[in-house]
Design a protein that fits this description.
- This protein is α+β, with helices and mostly antiparallel strands.
- It has three domains: 54 residues, Roll (Structural Genomics Hypothetical 15.5 Kd Protein In mrcA-pckA Intergenic Region, Chain A), CATH 3.10.290; 91 residues, 2-Layer Sandwich (Alpha-Beta Plaits), CATH 3.30.70; 78 residues, Alpha-Beta Plaits.
- The protein is built from six helices and 17 strands.
- Strands 7, 8, 9, 10, 13, 14, 15, 16 and 17 form a nine-stranded mixed beta sheet that branches. Strands 3-2-5-6 form a four-stranded antiparallel beta sheet. The chain has a two-stranded antiparallel sheet with strand order 1-4.
- The chain starts with 16 loop residues before the first strand and ends in a 6-residue tail after the last helix.
Length: 257
Amino acid sequence: MSEIFPTGQPHKDSEPVRVQKLLARAGFGSRRHCDNLIAEGRVQCNGELVILGDRANPLTDSLSVDDIPVPTQPDRVYVLLYKPSGVVTTANDPHGRPTVMGLIPSEPRLFPVGRLDMETEGLLVATNDGKLAELLTHPRHGVWKSYVLEIAGMVNESTLHKLRDGIDLDDGKTSPARVRLLSTAKDKCVLEIAIHEGRNRQIRRMAQAVGLELQRLIRTRIGPLGDERLEPGQWRYLEVDEVRGLYAAGASSDGVF
């Protein structure tokens, strides 16, 4: 794990550092490779082209490579959690229900990125990086999130087409979804649906609108990020390349699927 994402005591960097060192620490490879990125004119600091020898303050300056933001602040922490069903995605719950905050490290203070409703399980990112949170949740960035739906009964092609084309809900028509049938059995089937909107209980309302009896709903991917090894209630720190992938997804017009 890169030193830029601490698991213990936060770093105290406050002085300007050579840009190639910050890039290497953020997972872009060797110092020589980072020198090449700078020489090729692919690195910017606060919107200005970086040249070899330039320095940046990791706490206050904004770096980007190929117009994709680079996380440089040494106190940023990124956690991937598999939220179980029955847990709410809030920092505090007035009804005393268990929250995701009780499943992840208490220090430093992290916040869930987006929400999963109480019954829905699956992947959730928690971080203290507000820039990444905005990239992953704001509709204009269009980051795709994938869900697996366990459905009672069968699903016909007409229903799949409706989901792909968009569903009229009480808050407007949904954007087209990416839908595929994963498996069928005698009395149930499994679908995968990917959306890039973040409406309240959207997948559940879409399923209800087309008459599907939803038995289980699991979020399996956030942009390029997935992890089939995590069990409900388990979490882990993100690797450097995973954080970079999330930043790239948020900066891409297609959001990565």
